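@here heads up, posting the sequence + SMILES for the adenosine-5'-triphosphate run so it's all in one place. Ping me if the SMILES looks off, I pulled it from an old spreadsheet.
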Amino acid sequence: MAYFSCNAESAIATCDTYNWELLSKKPRNNRPSKITEFEFSDLHSATDGFSAANLLGKGSHGSVYKAHLHHIKLVAAVKKTKLFHPTAAANPADNEVEILSRIYHPRLVNLLGFGVDSNQCKLIVVEYMPNGSLYDSLHGSGKPPGWVKRTRFALQVARAVQFLHSSNPPIIHRDIKSSNVLIDSKFNSRLSDFGLALRGHVEDVKVKCTPPAGTLGYLDPGYLAPGDLSTKSDVFSFGILMLELITGRNAIDVNYSPPSVVEFAVPAIKSGDITGICDPRIAPPEDAEALRRMGVLAARCVRSRAAKRPGMAEVVECLKGVYRRTRMRPQICISLGRRVGRVVEDSRVVKYEHLEESMEIVRGSTKMGSRRNGKVSSATSVGLRSDVIGDQVGRSKSIGTAREIKLSPSELINDHTIRWRAGLSMKMPTVRLSKSRSVGILQSQRLVNDKYTGVAEEHVVGTRKLEESKLLVDLAENVKLQFKYKGPFPPRALGPLDPSSRRNVILALTVKGGVMCITIPDRHHQKGSHGIG
Ligand SMILES: Nc1ncnc2c1ncn2[C@@H]1O[C@H](COP(=O)(O)OP(=O)(O)OP(=O)(O)O)[C@@H](O)[C@H]1O
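bot reply: prediction finished. Complex structure tokens:
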């Protein structure tokens, strides 16, 4: 193709199978559609002549415009790149198209097509990301994201980087930073900007001969010469991004001393003072352990010796656990009359690891007969915070005998509906507990997340006094949670499982065939205001 004959690199690309996807009928790499070569006139009219109204932003390699491609019913982003000297060693636009045309991943800002203008400037057409960048989200004037969102963003970016590193040959992004992480319409993060990316093995001539590049603050300090490059340079940049997520600080911010986020955060992480460096604009996470793990992981990623940094597969695994823990609070769990062992075995249990961990805590603590089979089952209060109750009871110890209390049906239960409510300023999802005997978890936060991403992380503030007559749980942001179930009426209420724990109220309600346990972690503990009946 003439498009790639403008410089040496492109010529190689032409000989290589760069354009296979343009030519092949069936898209590969799970790409939903094949890459299109757009007419300039189409892109021109789609962007209203690259008008200022459609300008999305400017980068070092060009300007990005929103494009309404009516003829194919698509909104896209068009990167209008600067004119590069034909003899320049590497044109980022060519490079970006070359690499993106070979890959597709849901956590990347994927290539849709390309074009060229009358000056032979490349036009790169990529998926449109309507919710700005992670940089904007963290450092802009809007409400900063909470911990659930932050850990999810981290995990999603990690997955994207892992995908790149595990490609054959590997792709090293070389410019991982929060402004290159864009947020899509479903508030998922996507890695973008492949202008500096290198595809090849470290021993390949191209990789060995390309001078170091990246963004100050994110750049691996050990990457001083072409030969120093490895996937671990991306790991370093990703570690900075994680520190940015934890602290809410820029990679380098001269308004602080020390200006480097590494120097600010890593000593504190090493000394165990993770909460001391948390973004002060948001409340600390429910699960300090999750944050500690993320902090330790970030500190490992930014180690000065590349060999000591973890690989992205390990990073992803660790972040999966972190995300899982973070989003488990608050949670509402149901165990319908099953033995603990079966719960653990049940592959449908979404939060397997967490379940197992939590069940360790309560094993044998609250035995009650299952109506279904008459066997003794454990009431699995899944999701107990080991950091909250661990000190008192230990992981595998009993947390006490359930005490029966009476809750007034008139106030607590209304037409088989159990309500927790505070001020009602927004509509919340209703969770139906099915009669099915399968074991599952309903997470209020998850459900809320999906629909109300803007308030995802600040739902549970804590428990109020759980009186005989009413159950009132205040939720931040004036959130109401409402759960419906089709159990016997009225349900029998038990709790708390651990009367000595002043920081959790655990309510167990018998429902048909088993027990529903609800754990409400208390973040804003008020002394003396707890206890039941
Ligand atoms: N696919 C997209 N959808 C929506 N907006 C985008 C898209 N790609 C880029 N942008 C916007 O355009 C801006 C410029 O993007 P670009 O990738 O050219 O540069 P950058 O990454 O911000 O900076 P640099 O090129 O110096 O690394 C971004 O900050 C972003 O706001």
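MO: The pocket of adenosine-5'-triphosphate is lined by residues 56-62, 64, 77, 79, 109, 126-129, 133, 175, 179-180, 182, 192-193 (CB under 6 Å).
MO: One more: Confidence is low (pLDDT under 50) at residues 1-25, 330-533.
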